[in-house]
């Protein structure tokens, strides 16, 4: 038997953190009563979230996906540009993390809620590498400022980014490795320094690499790749 939040996450419904919030708000029931965090359950228990019965956890699946520009990572069936209309997998999976609609490249798709939590939680520092093309020549001063951390406004919030690795690739192109995942972070960093992003491609998420995966295609992760990713995340905590 396992803790109820972990069980819900393992079912693929949401991350463990999101499951905990659902429990806190009274939206989860176990065998007809309100759930609490110390409940331990198994496949024989009746778990209901917002009136919907949670299925027993399926076999965990992991895929790499090369997302094209124009595909939205938000899972909304009514949105024709949603990622859910692009993927066809035997079990329901969801994208981990953000890659905005105007960007393309590597994404991880999985029904492993626990792994999702580790990849999204700030306590688990992990690297994401991008190739970025901008609207004017990349200068040494620009690279130094990007690598040192950039301050910008996001709505009413002042953001100060972490120091990161930045390397020039060509006159108007660079690679950047982040350990944060804030909304449109690279685009906003560039804008704050007077640059406009023309193209943004994610190449790597920690040990997972895009490689030669064709555009809009998915690829199964091997057991070795999954194990390596989990070990790396645990060692980075």
From TrEMBL:
It catalyses: uridine(2604) in 23S rRNA = pseudouridine(2604) in 23S rRNA; uridine(35) in tRNA(Tyr) = pseudouridine(35) in tRNA(Tyr). InterPro entries: PsdUridine_s_RsuA/RluB/E/F_cat, PsdUridine_synth_cat_dom_sf, PsdUridine_synth_RsuA/RluA, PsdUridine_synth_RsuA/RluB/E/F, PsdUridine_synth_RsuA/RluB_CS, RsuA_PseudoU_synthase, S4_RNA-bd, S4_RNA-bd_sf. Belongs to the pseudouridine synthase RsuA family. GO terms for molecular function: 23S rRNA pseudouridine(2604) synthase activity; RNA binding. NCBIfam families: pseudouridine synthase. The lineage of its organism: Bacteria, Pseudomonadati, Pseudomonadota, Gammaproteobacteria, Oceanospirillales. Pfam families: PseudoU_synth_2, S4. This is Pseudouridine synthase. The keyword Heme does not apply. GO terms for biological process: enzyme-directed rRNA pseudouridine synthesis. Its EC number is 5.4.99.-. The keyword Transferase does not apply. PANTHER family: PSEUDOURIDINE SYNTHASE FAMILY PROTEIN-RELATED (PTHR47683), RNA-BINDING S4 DOMAIN-CONTAINING PROTEIN (PTHR47683:SF2). It comes from the Bacteria. Residues 2-59 form the RNA-binding S4 domain. PROSITE patterns: PSI_RSU, S4. It comes from Endozoicomonas montiporae. It is an enzyme of class 5 (isomerase). Signal peptide: none annotated. Keywords: Isomerase, RNA-binding. CDD domains: S4.
